[in-house]
C-alpha cells in the first residue's frame, strides 16, 4: 500500500513538473535543463533528466534562459514576439520575426501626409546616408504605414520609387488596423485619425538590434541624429 502511494505521488509530481515546464517555456522564455551536481563536465547541460555519465549522480534540474540554450529563441522584449502579418511593398506577406538578423531602423508614417512624414522620411534618408556602406547591408530601414487602409502595397511601392527608396535596404509595410495599433504601442508612437485622410502622430525613429530589442529612439523632426547613428553603428556588425 505504501508502495502504491509512492507511485501515485511520483506520477502526480511528474505530471505537475511536465505542465510547469511547458508553461515556463512559453511564458517567460526560460527552459529547464539538467546538470551534474558535481559539474563533472563543467557547465554541460542535458535536455532530459538522468545521471551523470562520469560520476553517475542524478542530474539536477536547472532553469536557464532559452536565449542561452538556443540562439534562435527571442527574448521577451523582442518586437519579434508580435505575430501580426504585414504586406511588403513588393506584395510578399511577412511576420516581423522574418526581419530578424538585421538591425532595424523603423518609423511610422503614411504616404499621403503633407506635413511631418516627408520630413521623417528625409531624416531616415539622412541617417542611411551617414552609415558606412558595409554596414548598410546589415540594416533594414522600415517604414510602417499608420494608414493601412490607404497605403496598399502598390501605393507604398510607388512612394518608395518617388523617394528613391527602392533599394534593398528599404522596406515598407502595410499591416492590419489592429496590427498597426499594437506595433505603435510597442514603439510608444501615438497616432489619431483627424480626418478621413489625415492623422496626427508622434515623430519617432526607433532602432532595434538584430534580435528585435529596442536599443534607441529619436523623437522629433530634423533633430540631431548623431546618437541614433552611433547606436545603429554600435549594434551592427
Ligand atoms: Cu505625417
From TrEMBL:
Residues 33-61 form the Heavy metal binding domain. It comes from the Bacteria. InterPro entries: HMBD, SCO1/SenC, Thioredoxin-like_sf. Belongs to the SCO1/2 family. Coiled coil: none annotated. It comes from Mariniflexile gromovii. The lineage of its organism: Bacteria, Pseudomonadati, Bacteroidota, Flavobacteriia, Flavobacteriales. This is SCO family protein. CDD domains: SCO (cd02968).
